[in-house]
Amino acid sequence: SSNEYKLNFKKSKEACLSYIQDALLQKQWKRAAEFLTCYVESLEKDYSREHIGPSEMIWRIGTEILWHHSQSRMKEFNCFMEQMKTLGVKRYLKVCLEHVFHLLCNGQIDEAYQNLSLAESWRFGEQTAIQDKEIKLIQAYRGLLDYCSWSKQKKILLEHGEDGFADLAVEQEMHSYFRKAAVNLKEIIKIPGVWDVFVKCYVDLLEFYGEHNEARQVLNEYAYNSKFPANPNAHVYLYQFLKRQGESKKSLISALKILHDIVPSHELMIDFNTMLQKSKKRKKRQLGLEVIFAALDYAGWKENAKAWSCLARQVKQIVISEKHLDWIKQEWNSRKDWWPDFHFSRYLAKRNWQENKSLSYEKALVAGILLGRDCKYFKYVSHQGCKAQVKRFRMLKKFVTRHNPVYLKISG
What we know:
The protein is an all-alpha fold. Helix content is 76%, strand content 0%.
């Protein structure tokens, strides 16, 4: 019966998809391709009255298989993508973009540019208005490729600037690429979103031609406009621009303060801490201590010698002056239950000593102040340093022993 046929067809289709999923998870690309072929053929042979439109799954699964299949070639991939483009207008531009990415990954820049140009000129009734943002994305990637061409011409100009006639020709070609790139890149970054690569390229173009005010405006908008999603890179780009422009430390600190609030483990926190430590204002120096403590809360910083050096230097200054011990106490109170095992175990002391003696010195200083002279980490490193007759380790041992009362005040 018709109902029985529909039920059987639905079951077989679901079973086929299940087999495809299993093959994909096990990276059995050939097996997945065979099941996908069966799946497509079963859809073509479906004589039920129920309309089954072209599925996005075929595009997604097929692309994944062709990307990994050992016998896949660009010819097959291009043919598949062209077929996917004709399956439905709603996905046309998305398929075009994915095709372009694949061409770029295989070094076919000219073919990618040509595909972007064709996609940009695509029109289909009301779908054109609905897919306006996707059209802008297509244009943006074309602008990105124009930027790459501009960069190549810039390199030629800088390397072979002696020939006046050649210089003029290259400059004219450069300016042509600049105009095309700037128009498209400028449009995409007006739309709220994460557009890191487009922003960086557009700012590079503006800076090269001396449009520093516009570059600043673009970066400020990207970092501070509330319509845009929170993005740490936006503040990184702004900070780097301000640094290139020789802006005041106040501006640099302001940019990094927001970055710290979003990503306290960012690598620029060392720069931030260094600037804050040099400040004459007490609040900023206290913030500097907070910043470096927060960074070292993350596993990726455990063996960062620069970070431990920053912390050791500031802790040492506070201990010697005997001022602001409450800063250290405040930071240590929330960490004293887990930092000893996280940073100052005997196992880590052995490993740090073997791999990086400078790191072990800085950590031992901090450990000795925070946990006292009986700390496992401090005892092991100072003993090994004195045994090796390294002068600064003998001085370290004396320093911690002399200031052991500080540990008692901090531990409270």
